[in-house]
Amino acid sequence: RRIARISHRATRFHYDLHFHPLLSDKLYETWIEKSCQGYADCVLVADVRGTPTGYISCHLGDHGEGRIGLMGVSSDFGGQGLGQLLVNASLRWFAENGSRRVSVVTQGRNFKAQRLYQKCGFLTCSIQLWYHYWLHRENRKRTHDRYSDPV
Question: Of 14, 112, 123, 134, most Cβ neighbours within 10 A?
Fold first, then answer.
């Protein structure tokens, strides 16, 4: 959960000012927790000297298709190749479990993730734009302190 709390800051939830950053962090904490409790078919964990340093969640779909859900590496271990090790380990796991194809979705602004997946052999097959439209617009403005208590 500690890794999830800080690993997904390039998401649309962190950039939409209607989502408080602490709630967005909590979303990813809950997502990886539920993935470990069975939402994902497998969660692989990178471990350095007994300390979890990263994770990747794997989902098996219909017709031999696999899907990577969440992938995160502790900021203390960034740039050391753990992301690539996790992706490659997931690809082996998918192959061992009958997947013939694996997909992953990431944010367009997350160039680091895009480069990682491309380095591991993934190709961009589509680009989609997602918009949030808030029906109940209030004249509230979020403070510049993105980590104050949720409003």
Answer: 14
**Residue 8 clears pLDDT 80, i.e. is over it:** no
Tell me how far CA of residue 99 lies from CA of 2, 38, 39, 84, 90, in angstroms. 30, 19, 18, 19, 11
- Strand-by-strand arrangement of the 101-104 sheet: 42-48, 51-60, 65-73, 101-104
CB of 75 closer than 8 Å to CB of 13: no
- Can you list the alpha helix ranges (DSSP code H) found in the chain? 2-7, 12-15, 21-34, 82-96, 111-119
Q: Give CA–CA dist 30/72, Å, rounded.
A: 14
Higher-scoring residue by pLDDT: 145, 3: 3
Residue ranges with strand state E in the chain: 42-48, 51-60, 65-73, 101-104
Which two three-digit tokens encode residue 13?
Answer: 């939830």
